[in-house]
Amino acid sequence: MPSTTSNSAPLSKRLFVFDFDWTLIDTDSDHWVFEHLSEELYQVQLDVVGKVQWTDLQQRLLGELYDRGVSKEDIERTLSQVPFAPEMIEALRLMKSHGAELYILSDANTVYIETALKAHNIDQLFTRIITNPAVFDERGRLNVVRYHGLDKEPHNCPLPCQPNICKGLEIQKLIDAQSWEQVVYMGDSTNDFCPSTRLQSKDVVLARRSLLLEKEIRENPQLIKANVIYWDNAKDVLKATQSILGSTSTVLTPPTFSKPSEPLSPVESSDLKARRAQAIRA
Ligand SMILES: [Mg+2]
Ligand SMILES: [Zn+2]
Predict the structure, then answer these.
(1) Annotated catalytic sites, by residue?
(2) Which structural domain, as residue segments, surrounds residue 74?
(3) Residues at the annotated binding site for substrate?
(4) Which of 10, 131, 267, 271 sits in a 20 to 30 Å window from 59, CA-based?
């Protein structure tokens, strides 16, 4: 629940929190790196999904990538080529220009996200990136560890969260830190459901259409209090952003987006890839 303060309340702002893979970008960064730098390790990644914890798997595969001679520069160059839709960047800039605070809450890692954001000159838009910590060692080998480490007690979230991060716990800390005018969470996958349940009736979930977050919401509607706006692509996100920022009251009319006056763009082929990438990670 939002905390109340007895002192003069700080100027209320909107809080926007984003998943990264298949939400801000139209790919999965963990796949992107291996897809472009080692077809063989990419295949290993696909083959062992579900058998090994995902962050631990990335750590092991990054060691093998280093052993094959792939350098820090190779990884950084590949990440700087991660696709970022212009309308998504426009939406982020619009949020920031309206005084909102922007956070990323992701199961990728700090190096992947920061490198991709810097390549598009949008890293300064975000207050903080909450994700698995990663760092290159002096040899240029990238190391990534779990955000919720093995040294901590398990988070024991009853919702479908991975052991290395419960996004619900993390967004709750952000929600409780300030008296927000409105909270918006944007995601696509199963692990985006838990943070979506933390939002209140004045808040908005921007759920990518036809993917696993939508499935969770439709199967467990009683757990969602916020307005849900479904989106297919960055153009939809930009329209939704304009609507959210333009609304002065806390009441939104999400049906505008469920039944747009102009037809939405055809489902992009990337959605098929998204479904495949999600299916193998779920
Ligand atoms: Mg995602
Ligand atoms: Zn959780």
Answers:
(1) 19, 21
(2) 14-281
(3) 30, 107
(4) 271
